[in-house]
Design brief:
CATH topology: Cytosolic phospholipase A2 catalytic domain
CATH class: Alpha Beta
Radius of gyration: 18 Å
Order of helices and strands: EHEHHHHEEHEEEHEH
Keywords: Hydrolase, Lipid degradation, Lipid metabolism
Number of domains: 1
InterPro entries: Acyl_Trfase/lysoPLipase (IPR016035), NTE (IPR050301), PNPLA_dom (IPR002641)
Pfam families: Patatin (PF01734)
CATH superfamily: Cytosolic phospholipase A2 catalytic domain
Organism: Sphingobacterium allocomposti
Helix content: 25-40%
GO biological process, one term: lipid catabolic process
CATH architecture: 3-Layer(aba) Sandwich
Distance between the termini: 26 Å
Shape: globular
Number of strands: 8
Amino acid sequence: MKAANKQQKVSLVLGSGGARGITQIGVIQCLEEQGFIVDEVVGCSIGALVGAAYACRRVQELGDWMKTLTKTQVFKLMDFSNPRYGLLKGARVLNTLHQVFDDVNIEDLPLRYTAVATDLEREEEVLFREGSIYAAIRASIAIPGVFTGVSWSNRFLVDGGVLNPVPVNHVSKKENIVIAVNLDGIPAKDDGLVPKLNPVALLQESYYAMRRRLSRLTLELYKPHYTITVPHNSAGIWDFHRSKELIDMGYNLTEQALKSQHQLKLPLESRPTAG
């Protein structure tokens, strides 16, 4: 095994997890300060959004905007929809994001960008590697029951995290160091949580447990060289008003991961490839 050369190029995998995903802005800030060169981003859900801002060279501006959000402002971004199809339309969020970065074609970006969505009917992942970056983000963030799904090319698309919360398998630059952000880490201790749960909350926690297992199995199979793990209970899905705290958390967790995972875990040629 060889030590990582910080000047070697990086494929950065950004996971799904609602407001926890704002930690990924701090991850990027730390990697850049440490001298890593990111030339590929693969993201799903909030990771697709943060990755898009980075690919457009506007991730600092995204972080600055997120830090200004209050609970009231987050609520005002919610454009409620017919609850039969999803709680929110999602248009207001994307329209507001135009203040941060413009819509562009993915193929015109200065680095390789992939957003991952889920075809719910066929139960398969759908990759966006060309076309409107805003269309890619919208499909990838369509959390079932929260944002309305997206009709696209005779498919019905929802959040990429449904099937793959940390899409390491879609890295295309096999020669790169692979750094993944897992937003489904084991929750920090929360004194006696389970006995206090009502039936709905118990179902929710069971779903989260399945996500954690799925993320862990994916990471064990595809073995990124570095993994930054964010505890699952570090933020709720709508806690965007805590963005400054979450960005700082992502920065600190990345520093810790780079120090503790100082060697490449597996030669690149030994990792499985995506189908």
